[in-house]
Specification:
single chain; mainly alpha; 0% strand; extended
């Protein structure tokens, strides 16, 4: 019973955070474009965003499970957004950047270890 309460409380906090963020984005868009958004629109957009995020999370978990993994990988995200070419390209670019950063950190770590071994 308490576990259900905690889950509900967590979900409500997430929904509130999504609603706040959507409201902030609508305010920024309104300031930039002069288009006004009423409260009902913001609430509907926030609910739609939350439901879509839930759907994405379920799909990502299923992709990983299908591959017999417990970890969601960037490839799973790319598979999820495959129908939106611009989003797919953006995600692919971000993944490539992350790979480059990881490789640089790995090289730096290896260089430090090599220097440490030679100085001993």
């Amino acid at each position: 019973m308490e576990d259900d309460y905690e889950r509900l409380n967590h979900t409500q906090r997430l929904k509130a955070a999504v609603h706040y963020t959507v409201g902030q984005l609508c305010d920024e868009t309104s300031a930039d474009t002069g288009i006004e958004f009423n409260k009902q629109f913001v609430a509907a957009l926030a609910e739609l965003t939350f439901k879509q995020s839930e759907s994405f999370a379920i799909d990502l978990e299923l992709f990983a499970k299908h591959a017999k993994r417990t970890t969601i990988l960037p490839d799973d995200v790319q598979l999820l957004v495959r129908k939106s070419q611009s989003l797919h390209d953006h995600i692919k670019e971000k993944c490539s950047q992350q790979v480059s950063i990881s490789e640089e950190k790995r090289k730096e770590k290896k260089t430090k270890q090599t220097k440490k071994k030679t100085s001993q």
